[in-house]
Backbone:
């Protein structure tokens, strides 16, 4: 038996979302600051720049997390590498190398609570059931997922488009039934969701965070010809075709002014 006090029941902590074994705790104010940083901390909280932590209830389901993300745990929580064989190790090492994710993602199971390191990024909980059981993530966004989900490496349809568009050739795909968490520079409230039915969407830049695995993803000229692309001023764009869903940010990160 264990009891956690002055964490989620702290009046400065708010649970902003819950799904499956996961809950997102958001610290409404940063009180652990020196006088010189008080003004920055105050206005940061007003602008939704806050520390957030992912809480994992491994009693509900075993979870797989990004390497190095664990901060503390309580109860009978055991970590494993999730490696089943030498071939599995090679597969995970390759996947990590090409998708900018950690090669070995520890799996936590047992009966207890696992809390991940705080971050100022926005934590977003999604369910693969809402993506037809298979979703592709942009590079570096994965934080945690239900261990029932299978990780696969998805290859871009054409090598030349990936190179020309300064995109990675491979992406991480999560498959099966379960909840997962991504880290985003944009809050969930501002994310745009586009549902396609045998249609196409073109996006200028790396704004898409996740998309249905069934969509055909390429990088193409914005116009039919080189002259047309030059005249539009857009050049290359990310193109998604078919039937499925895309979750995207409304704008790219702006430099600090």
Residues:
């Amino acid at each position: 038996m264990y009891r956690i006090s002055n964490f989620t029941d702290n009046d400065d902590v708010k649970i902003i979302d819950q799904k499956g074994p996961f809950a997102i705790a958001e610290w409404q104010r940063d009180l652990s600051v020196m006088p010189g940083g008080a003004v920055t901390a105050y206005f940061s909280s007003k602008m939704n720049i806050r520390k957030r932590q992912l809480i994992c209830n491994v009693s509900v389901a075993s979870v797989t997390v990004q390497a190095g993300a664990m901060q503390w745990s309580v109860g009978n929580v055991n970590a494993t590498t999730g490696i089943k064989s030498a071939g599995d190790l090679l597969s995970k090492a390759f996947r990590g190398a090409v998708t900018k994710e950690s090669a070995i993602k520890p799996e936590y199971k047992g009966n207890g609570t696992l809390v991940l390191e705080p971050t100022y990024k926005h934590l977003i909980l999604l369910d693969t059931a809402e993506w037809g059981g298979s979703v592709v993530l942009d590079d570096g966004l994965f934080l945690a997922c239900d261990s029932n989900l299978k990780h696969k490496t998805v290859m871009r349809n054409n090598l030349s488009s990936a190179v020309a568009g300064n995109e990675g050739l491979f992406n991480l795909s999560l498959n099966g039934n379960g909840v997962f968490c991504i880290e985003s520079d944009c809050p969930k409230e501002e994310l745009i969701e586009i549902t396609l039915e045998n249609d196409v969407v073109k996006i200028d830049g790396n704004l898409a965070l996740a998309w249905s695995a069934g969509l055909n993803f390429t990088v193409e000229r914005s116009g039919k010809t080189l002259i047309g692309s030059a005249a539009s001023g857009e050049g290359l764009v990310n193109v998604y075709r078919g039937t499925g869903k895309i979750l995207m940010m409304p704008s790219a990160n702006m430099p600090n002014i």
